[in-house]
Amino acid sequence: MRTCCIYPVDMATPVKQPPAADRVYTHVKQGVLDRRYEGGTLLTEGELADAVGVSRTPVREALLRLEMEGLIRLYPKKGALVLPVSAQEIADVVETRLLVEEHAARKAVPAPPGLVERLAELLERQKEQAAAGDFAAAAVTDRCFHAEIVRSGGNEILSRLYDQLRDRQLRMGVAVMQSHPDRIAKTLAEHEEILEALRSGDAEAAVGVVHRHVSWFSHLARGEVR
After folding, report:
1. Which backbone phi and psi does 75 adopt, to 5 degrees?
2. Is the full-model pTM beyond 0.85?
3. Quick check: 98 and 211 in contact, CB under 8 A?
4. Spatial distance between the Cα atoms of 148 and 152, rounded to a whole number of angstroms
5. Tens digits of residue pLDDT in 48-66
6. Which end of the chain has fewer CB atoms < 10 Å from its terminal CB, N or C?
């Protein structure tokens, strides 16, 4: 497990805070991703300014950034509406994930020991988070599991493309874990299958599990539950 070094803090040296707009941006974005701010929630500048302890000017700047990322929609003199995850967005993410992740799974074989070790570590962490009911953390670890396989291919362009899906994947992952808690055990089992296929050098088995694992979201988008 990775650890962090802790150094004595010089109490005489003030801790420099991030710019106000960045603090608002982080506050709202994290709230949207972990679903404290559900789709359909209307956020006002005044409420956000009070919550973060800033003026309204940096709130407007942060909300403009979040609108460009497709997480909210601004309505003048009313506030910002948190956009719900649409069926089309799920379908688009699933299609892109399948293209990238099936290719990455095939390319990951034979899997280097470092990749197998890292995936095993992430799987154990996700099991612990799921058991504790920490769905937001489990969704982050879930996304890291798949990103490690994509990065193992060494294609920086493909890795950056995949990273662009990060926020959408996290938001969808938390939503699924909260609305379909029975899916968590199946997700963990499929991650175990992917890991074993890579460990054994069976590329086609790895691709098959990835396809089944990711495609489930498309069934969700159509209102099907499997």
Report:
1. -125, 110
2. no
3. yes
4. 6
5. 999 999 999 999 999 999 9
6. N
